[in-house]
Amino acid sequence: MSQTLQNWKQEINQCDSLKVLEDIRVRLLGKSGEITQMLKTLGTLDTDKRREKGAEINQLKEGILLSLQERHAHLAKQALEDKLVAEAVDVTLPARPERVGTLHPLTRTLEEVTTYFAKAGFSVAEGSDIEDEEHNFNALNIPEHHPARQSIDTFYLNAEKMLLRTHTSPVQIRTMKTTTPPIRILSLGRVYRSESDATHTPMFHQVEGLVIDKDIHMGHLKSTLSDFLRNYFDIVDLPMRFRPSFFPFTEPSTEVDIGCSREGNSLKIGAGNSWLEILGCGMVHPKVLANCGIDPEVYQGFAWGMGMDRIAMLKYGLYDLRAFFESDARWLKHYGFSPFFSAGA
Ligand code: 2NM
Questions:
Q1: Which atom of ligand 1 is nearest to the CA of 210?
Q2: N or C end: fewer C-beta atoms under 10 angstroms in the chain?
């Protein structure tokens, strides 16, 4: 009997697959298994013999069960280890070199501008594309019959109570109404004007900035914007001129031109004897401050606005504005930027 046990144990311990182990278990302990059969023969024996033989077979059965359990645990552990090795992922491998999608030039420009001004202490303020006349016009010193109101082609919604914002200035208005200065914010986003030709799309993007504090003057405006433009176009001695202009919401107001050359069909920024208008700016009008509950006797500030599509076009030489919004995958592949290089890289 113990020889049988030894043989079976050996067979179990040499078995190297869970499937074969299960076959052995069925062969020995299944319904018509060898040990099961042995137990069935007990009924033919007399009482003493049955007790003796029964104890023996049960011992055999316990021994086999224990061996099966141990071998099963061993093989299951082995199988798990093999599986882990087979499915291992080397997370230290470098990323795949293929480019999967690119950043749109506008996204890249947005990141460059926000990164620059974040370092200068500005935070980004957000607003809604749908605005009302109060925040888009009235508070900005553009009252109902002001000629500036007619010169902006506005998309009106429901009975002319609401509209699509024509600039991001309502964001500045809302910020001034709810914030005690000092204020340093940047607002970027979609704006809408009912105009459409080669150089105008009915939706485009603006970047506007606002600084409100005590003792702010034109010197701050000039240095803030000239440092930005030099940095953005990456030209240390970028020629610039601040040309007097008019906006209802600033006084005084200026437009900023940068030096360029227009030889043949190509436009080159930073050199030559021609000028290119790049942004509008000015000292926030005292009436605008007062409209927002800020005392113009205590606080002053400056603001500016520029077209984000326009500055992206100029920096990256993309001369067809319509292509910005066509979602042509081939154009994006050609003019898009790798997401793996940060702004300025
Ligand atoms: C421009 C030019 C000049 C401007 C003014 C304001 C506000 F709300 F603070 F009064 N926001 N943006 C501004 C000033 C915008 O865009 C050409």
A1: 9
A2: C
